[in-house]
């Protein structure tokens, strides 16, 4: 934790000289950068983690909760996405707050009301010390265009699903550094990918760090990643603009809204099948039967628990799913 | 050409000679005994260790089960494969499958534990079941709770036979939750030789459940049929 001396007081607000802002899910990075913050998505470290958290439901929240509370991740502030996302995060976020890290709870509107989201963004901006770099959202918009190109190229078989996923998932915090991130994006290697079966990956991202590469090696090319696609899809130049766009963040909205969006996207990408990833002890698992009912594609549901390599039991399911797609 | 199914507890070899199915079964770790004199080029493998044994082609147990069951029951629409470590439910008509390997309550390991507790052979469980006069209610959601309940029911005065029947019902109920609507339901895997479990399942589902003559070799046969 940085001490209070690290912050300087401006006319009527705390303005932070340097602040690392941890986020637990999608918080418009446009606003964090504009407030001169350096966002850091705490989920970045989970898939590679070897931790066995003590008090756990979902391993994603349990691991970041433990690491933040024990100061094993160096951050200054925490923003917990609570409303419209994850109740495990809401509770684990409060545990972190009780450990002494200044924490803000951010709520998306279930009904997509942009005025509500705007008021949430103003509160967040107050928490972060207000906008000091208004040019950042424009720069992020340009980067997101590059992200959309990456997404398209992988759907066209020019970039591997693993490479595309790693870039897209990083759009939640843009590695905390726009210039560095831009270099990483432009270094992405293009090569011809043997596409095999085209699958969409819906639900929260898998907790296994090698999932996309494993799926590809087993003949399943992921051409759509639901959540990372949300990371590159929304933008906005100022708070009202960000509110108008991010209020359609599908994960926070009712299921029929999200499903309609998925139906259109899957159709566009000509997928052969859908993989629904679910996380142990996550409420999104309850959505599985609805997804199966509404999405008219062969569907494989898998569940992960602890981070690491894709386990053999999951590989068996992927292989059987490929065989199934080849039979249909 | 042979079909070789090397699973978590047993290995099975199947060949078809003059239209007749020949098979051999051994423990997983003795799988090599099944293939003496047979080159990898003549093996179509399936099962948990399908990629660890020499093979010309390999296929998952799910696809192998579909091809193997088709040999016995061409119009089966749902297949339930109860293995030692997992249970697979294959909806052949809808081309869909689910695998339970998280909870032992729905796998062969659960009944094995019961047999071990009573120091009896797995294959004796069916005849114990048939001698039960009453069937105690046993929690069906969690293997661990069901096992402690089993002991409570013994304390409450139920006989060993009755508690075993109760455990078969607990097991069958657990499996039944995973089974979709089916006209023709086929059960395969070693566990289905247990008549007590089978009758519990038929009772719960209120329908006949079909079992091939040699339910254990279906996947090895299926691997062979898939390729040939
Ligand atoms: S996987 Fe589910 S429970 Fe875990 S953090 Fe994500 S939304 Fe929350």
Give the gist of this structure.
The complex is a heterodimer of chains A (328) and B (228). Chain A has 328 residues and is of the alpha/beta class.
* SS elements, strand count of chain A: 10
Number of helices of chain A: 13
Share of residues in strands of chain B = 15-25%
Mean pLDDT of chain B: 91
- Which molecules other than protein and nucleic acid are bound? iron/sulfur cluster
Q: What is the tally of helical segments of chain B? A: 8
Into which percentage range does the β-strand content of chain A fall? 15-25%
**Biggest interface and its residues per chain?**
A-B, 13 and 14 residues
Low-confidence stretches of chain A: 1-16
Number of strands of chain B: 9
CATH architecture group name of the largest domain in chain B: 2-Layer Sandwich
Tell me the major beta sheet of chain B: 5 strands, mixed
Quickly give the CATH architecture of the largest domain in chain A. Answer: 3-Layer(aba) Sandwich
Radius of gyration of chain A: 20 Å
CATH class category of the largest domain in chain A: Alpha Beta
List the helices and strands and how they pair.
The complex is a heterodimer of chains A (328) and B (228).
Chain A: E1 7-9, E2 14-16, E3 20-23, H1 29-34, E4 38-41, H2 59-69, E5 77-83, H3 87-98, E6 103-107, H4 114-128, H5 136-155, H6 161-169, H7 178-186, E7 197-203, H8 211-217, E8 220-225, H9 226-233, H10 239-246, H11 255-268, E9 273-279, H12 288-294, E10 299-304, H13 312-327
Parallel strand pairs in A: 3-4, 3-5, 5-6, 7-8, 7-9, 9-10
Antiparallel strand pairs in A: 1-2
Chain B: E1 2-6, E2 10-17, E3 20-27, H1 31-34, E4 43-46, E5 57-58, H2 61-72, E6 78-82, E7 87-91, E8 96-100, H3 108-117, H4 125-130, H5 143-155, H6 160-178, E9 185-188, H7 195-205, H8 218-227
Parallel strand pairs in B: 1-4, 4-5, 6-9
Antiparallel strand pairs in B: 1-2, 2-3, 6-7, 7-8
3D architecture notes:
The complex is a heterodimer of chains A (328) and B (228). By secondary structure, chain A is of the alpha/beta class. Chain A folds into two domains: 125 residues, Rossmann fold, CATH 3.40.50.11890; 176 residues, Rossmann fold. In chain A, the strands form three sheets. A four-stranded parallel β-sheet of chain A has the order 4-3-5-6, sandwiched between helices. In chain A, strands 8-7-9-10 form a four-stranded parallel β-sheet, sandwiched between helices. Chain A has a two-stranded antiparallel sheet with strand order 1-2. In chain A, helix 4 packs across helix 10. The longest helix of chain A is centred in the middle third of the chain and has 20 residues. By secondary structure, chain B is an alpha/beta fold. Chain B has two domains: 83 residues, 2-Layer Sandwich (Nucleotidyltransferase, domain 5), CATH 3.30.420; 119 residues, ATPase, nucleotide binding domain (Nucleotidyltransferase, domain 5), CATH 3.30.420. In chain B, the strands form two sheets. Chain B has a five-stranded mixed β-sheet with strand order 3-2-1-4-5. Chain B has a four-stranded mixed β-sheet with strand order 8-7-6-9, covered by helices on one side. The longest helix of chain B has 19 residues. Chains A and B meet through strand 10 and helix 13 of A and helix 2 and strand 8 of B. Bound molecules: iron/sulfur cluster. The site of iron/sulfur cluster (SF4) has 10 residues of chain A, from helix 2 and helix 3. Iron/sulfur cluster binds next to helix 2 and helix 3 of chain A.
């Amino acid at each position: 934790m940085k001490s209070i001396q690290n912050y300087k007081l401006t006319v009527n607000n705390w303005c932070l000289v340097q602040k690392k802002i941890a986020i637990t899910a999608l918080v418009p990075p446009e606003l964090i950068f504009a407030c001169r913050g350096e966002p850091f998505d705490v989920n970045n470290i989970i898939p590679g983690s070897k931790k066995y958290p003590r008090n756990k439901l979902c391993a994603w929240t349990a691991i970041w909760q433990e690491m933040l509370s024990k100061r094993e991740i160096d951050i200054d502030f925490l923003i917990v996405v609570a409303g419209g996302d994850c109740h495990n995060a809401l509770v684990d976020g409060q545990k972190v707050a009780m450990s002494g890290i200044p924490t803000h709870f951010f709520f998306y509107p279930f009904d997509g009301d942009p005025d509500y989201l705007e008021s949430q963004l103003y509160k967040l901006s107050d928490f972060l010390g207000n906008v000091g770099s208004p040019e950042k959202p424009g720069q992020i918009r340009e980067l997101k265009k590059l992200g959309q190109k990456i997404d398209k190229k992988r759907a066209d078989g020019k970039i591997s699903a693993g490479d595309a996923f790693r870039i897209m998932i990083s759009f939640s915090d843009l590695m905390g550094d726009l210039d560095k991130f831009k270099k990483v994006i432009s270094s992405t290697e293009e090569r011809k990918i043997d596409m095999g079966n085209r699958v969409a990956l819906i639900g929260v991202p898998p907790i296994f760090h090698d999932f996309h590469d494993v799926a590809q090696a087993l003949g399943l090319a992921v051409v759509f990643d639901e959540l990372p696609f949300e990371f590159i899809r929304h933008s906005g130049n100022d708070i009202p603009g960000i509110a108008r766009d991010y209020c359609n963040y599908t994960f926070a909205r009712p299921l029929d809204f999200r499903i309609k969006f998925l139906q259109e996207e899957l159709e566009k990408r000509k997928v052969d099948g859908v993989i629904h990833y679910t996380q142990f002890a996550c409420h999104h698992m309850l959505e599985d039967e609805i997804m199966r009912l509404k999405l008219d594609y062969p569907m494989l549901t898998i569940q992960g628990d602890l981070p690491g390599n894709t386990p053999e039991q999951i590989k068996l399911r992927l292989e059987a799913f490929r065989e199934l797609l080849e039979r249909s | 050409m042979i079909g070789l199914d090397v699973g978590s507890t047993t290995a099975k070899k199947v060949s078809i000679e003059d239209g007749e199915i020949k098979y051999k079964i051994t423990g997983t770790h003795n799988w090599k005994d099944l293939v003496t004199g047979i080159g990898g080029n003549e093996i179509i493998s399936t099962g948990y260790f399908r990629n660890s044994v020499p093979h010309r082609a390999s296929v998952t147990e799910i696809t192998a089960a579909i091809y193997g069951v088709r040999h016995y029951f061409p119009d089966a629409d749902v297949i339930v494969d109860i293995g030692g470590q997992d249970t697979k439910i294959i909806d052949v008509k809808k081309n869909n499958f689910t695998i339970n390997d998280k909870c032992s309550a729905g796998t062969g390991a659960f009944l094995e534990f019961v047999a071990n507790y009573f120091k009896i052979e797995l294959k004796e469980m069916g005849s114990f079941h048939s001698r039960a006069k009453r069937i105690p209610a046993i929690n069906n959601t969690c293997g661990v709770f069901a096992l402690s309940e089993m002991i409570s029911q013994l304390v409450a005065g139920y006989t060993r036979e009755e508690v075993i029947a109760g455990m078969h019902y607990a097991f069958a109920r657990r499996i039944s939750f995973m089974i979709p609507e089916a006209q023709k339901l086929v059960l395969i895997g070693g566990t289905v030789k247990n008549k007590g479990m089978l009758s519990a399942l038929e009772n719960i589902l209120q329908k006949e459940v079909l079992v091939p003559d040699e339910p254990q070799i279906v996947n090895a046969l299926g691997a062979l049929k898939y390729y040939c």
